[in-house]
Amino acid sequence: MEAASHLNQGRDENEDLTKGVGYAIVQRLVNESPEPLTVILACRNKHRAQEALTNLQNYFEKLNQRQRKHHGDNQQDHDKNSSEAVKELSSSPSPSPKKKDQKRTPSFYHHPPDLKIELVDIGSVASVLAFNQRIRDQYRKIDYLFCNAGILPSAGLMWRKVVTDCFRAPMDLVVRADVLIQPKQHLTEDGIGNVLACNVFGHYVMIKGLEDQLNKTEDDPGRVIWTSSLTAEKAMFKDDDWQGLEAKQPYESSKWVADLLSIRLNEIWAAQQPTGSLIIAAAEMISTTAAGAGNLQSGVSSGTESNNGGRATTPIRRNTRSALEKDGSHSVTVVIPSKKNIVSFTTQPGIVASGIGGLAGWVVTLRIALHYILRICGERHQTITGYHGAQANVYAALKSPIGEVDYRLKYGSCIGRTGKELLKKEEIVEYEESQGQMVVEELEKLRLSFVSS
């Protein structure tokens, strides 16, 4: 079983891989999976990736040693109980004591995880495309793709708002990012807003490039798991500024895009309908002459082949009314991809006290103290550690059967006063299919501009 675990560091503003949610996803996924895994750590910085790999290897080795010792102790107790039971049977007709149920040992007990590093900069389209090619060359299938990397640029705190929120909305200080000064996005070398590039577009390019590897069976589809945020809000997103280039809070805008994308991809994969790129191509070609309309099939097919390793999908002819009115008699051929057995889920890790946001050390320390105080007071989003924050990601990846996980819900990591983990299931009630389709069309048109160049 191959699990592509996307733990890209993205930019300097990101959480420390050795402490954050990405690192914890690997810990929990390997520990809780019923089967041995190959885990690919997709990281930007080679030195920090190697540091994370070494720490994970040491972690699993120590855990394995503890499991072996625990197993040995249980075996000794079992042998002792069996011996006592035999003696009791020889002297009394009473039944032997019942054996205690033994817990299932993790999969790595007999099969240590195969951990690998692949370097990729999620904010660079060229880097992601090269990464996709390497993965396609090495792996036949992917079970899980975690879209966890992200950035939250910050230029400091709005101290006036900090003071007023202490009295008006103290909970927002440790739950939301409203008090952070978020600078406007700058354009990457690819001409894309840097927050959207790292939080959404790079992941989208990766998903589209690995669809063949993710496409499995209806009962066991490949799973894409997005790490969204509590602060993802429709109010922060504008249709005419879908990249959030003018947004005052581009992070919140990008996370809403991720939620839209997660839901809409499911609808596209399951509905056997053209993706955004095919719809765009059709719309452009419909306005041409009859001769131009005749080139639609070849133009769309070339884009489809680039997504499927050179293998064209079977074309299905569909007569488009507006096109027939344009050319009088010629039909327009649209290539409709076959249904893909892939599902996408969106999650949020609660409030994890990582380095994301680039705040000063003393501010982070103060926030951690406040997190624990609020947890004791009953505020359930205070997960604080990456390990607790990764609960929802791993749940969405491993929950079986697949029918018990609903792509229309956002799964959230929560925790009780005493540290007991809780899972939050929340419907994304503001989702609109038209808005989701618009986002997919824009992302696909942007992706094709790089793939076809």
Offer a concise description of the structure:
About 45% of the residues lie in helices and about 10% in strands.
Main sheet attributes: strand count, strand direction, barrel closure: 5 strands, mixed
Task: Tally the helices.
Answer: 16
Beta-strand share of residues: 5-15%
Q: Given the C-alpha coordinates, what overall shape results?
A: globular
Helix content: 40-55%
CATH topology of the largest domain: Rossmann fold
Classify the secondary structure makeup into a structural class.
alpha/beta
In round numbers, the mean pLDDT is 78
Q: CATH homologous superfamily of the largest domain? A: NAD(P)-binding Rossmann-like Domain
Distance between the termini: 34 Å
CATH class category name of the largest domain? Alpha Beta
Number of E-type strands? 10
Radius of gyration using CA atoms only: 25 Å
Q: Provide the CATH architecture of the largest domain.
A: 3-Layer(aba) Sandwich
| Poorly predicted tracts of residues | 5-18, 88-92, 94-103, 274-333
For the biggest β-sheet, the strand order reads 4-5-8-9-10
Structural domains: how many: 2
Give the SSE order as H and E letters.
EHEHEHEHHHHEHHHHEHEEHHHEEH
Biased composition (Basic and acidic residues): 72-87
Biased composition (Polar residues): 297-311
Region (Disordered): 66-110, 297-325
InterPro entries: Ergosterol_Biosynth_ERG27, NAD(P)-bd_dom_sf
